[in-house]
């Protein structure tokens, strides 16, 4: 199957999973063009994709970061970003539910991070390895600004416009000792921003994410409730979808950021990409 040419992508996470994104955030300018798309990649068959349009902008989206049974999360990410590269994607928005590290945060707070801390074991996840990836300003300021603006338009609760996302391995949640170790170094904790942020830089695409607090980190504030987690999972998904769609509507494919310029040709040409 041929990969469609698109300039926008949405990496669905737990925030939109229950809404069959963008189905429960539909508007007159949204149309699902193709569904149940799978593509062959050098890393195995891709995850499920959906192709839709918002106005005249075509968008590829996947569910839950492409994670699925029988495929490592590292390979799922490689498959995902290989497809994005072949499609010509320039702007990527990710989303997900996260836990707290900063004790000032509560459930149902939004945070749009401006940096990350990688504690996962999935660090050596790339495509061909021919680039030196400079990871300052790794989360695109232009996408972040639009996400902040549209979150404020659609949500009356608390919105934090910067912070650090600590990425742990999963699939389990973190222990109280792990959360205690992160205090003072991160604000939220999740399992998806890495290696996505590296792979976005490798393919020369802008990347940023919108994260909704769904639980307190263990040992902080109070024990979190599975019922509250479930309520958030089902109740707030259409709103998160609308924020993302509004952001795409307002965001040109070509930016004035330096995201693409922070990807340089490797000097180790005799080692990588022979």
Give helix % range.
Answer: 25-40%
Largest sheet composition: 11 strands, mixed
Tell the overall outline: globular
Distance between the termini: 28 Å
Name of the CATH superfamily: Nucleoside phosphorylase domain
* Count of separate structural domains: 1
User: How are helices and strands ordered from N to C?
Assistant: EEEEEEHEEEEHEEHEHEHHE
Description:
The chain contains six helices and 15 strands. With 274 residues, it is α/β, with parallel strands linked by helices. The chain has one domain: Nucleoside phosphorylase domain (Rossmann fold, 3-Layer(aba) Sandwich), CATH 3.40.50. The strands form three sheets. Strands 1, 2, 5, 6, 7, 8, 9, 11, 12, 13 and 14 form an eleven-stranded mixed β-sheet that branches. α1 packs parallel to α4 and α2 (141-154) crosses α6 (237-250). It starts with 7 loop residues before the first strand and ends in a 9-residue tail after the last strand. The relative contact order is 0.22. The model has no long low-confidence stretch (mean pLDDT 93).
Structure keywords:
two-stranded antiparallel sheet, eleven-stranded mixed sheet, Rossmann fold, 274 residues, 6 helices, alpha/beta, globular, single chain, 15 strands
List the helices and strands and how they pair.
Layout: E1 8-11, E2 30-37, E3 40-41, E4 44-45, E5 49-54, E6 57-62, H1 73-87, E7 91-100, E8 110-111, E9 115-118, E10 131-133, H2 141-154, E11 159-160, E12 164-167, H3 176-182, E13 188-190, H4 193-202, E14 206-215, H5 226-235, H6 237-250, E15 263-265
Parallel strand pairs: 1-6, 1-7, 7-14, 8-11, 9-12, 12-13
Antiparallel strand pairs: 2-5, 3-4, 5-6, 7-13, 8-14, 10-15
Helix pairs in contact: 1-4, 2-6
């Amino acid at each position: 199957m041929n990969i469609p040419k698109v300039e926008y992508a949405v990496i669905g996470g737990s925030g939109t999973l229950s809404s069959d994104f963008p189905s429960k955030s539909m508007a007159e300018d949204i149309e699902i063009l193709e569904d149940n798309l799978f593509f062959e990649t050098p890393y195995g068959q891709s995850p499920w994709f959906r192709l839709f349009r918002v106005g005249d902008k075509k968008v590829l989206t996947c569910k839950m970061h492409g994670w699925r049974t029988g495929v490592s999360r590292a390979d799922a990410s490689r498959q995902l970003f290989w497809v994005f590269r072949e499609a010509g994607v320039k702007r990527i928005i990710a989303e997900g539910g996260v836990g707290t590290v900063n004790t000032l945060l509560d459930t149902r707070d939004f945070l749009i991070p401006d940096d990350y801390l990688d504690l996962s074991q999935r660090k050596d996840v790339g495509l061909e390895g021919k680039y030196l990836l400079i990871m300052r300003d790794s989360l695109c300021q232009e996408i972040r600004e639009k996400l902040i603006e549209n979150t404020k338009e659609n949500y009356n609760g608390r919105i934090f416009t910067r912070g650090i996302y600590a990425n742990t391995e999963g699939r389990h949640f973190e222990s109280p000792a792990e959360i205690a170790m992160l205090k003072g170094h991160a604000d939220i904790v999740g399992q998806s921003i890495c290696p996505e942020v590296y792979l976005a830089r490798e393919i020369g695409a802008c990347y940023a994410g919108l994260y909704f607090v769904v639980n307190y980190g263990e040992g902080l504030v109070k024990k979190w409730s599975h019922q509250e987690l479930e309520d958030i999972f089902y109740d707030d998904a259409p709103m998160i979808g609308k924020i993302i769609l509004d952001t795409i509507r307002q965001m040109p494919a070509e930016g004035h950021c330096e995201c693409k310029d922070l990807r340089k040709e490797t000097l180790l040409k005799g080692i990588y990409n022979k």
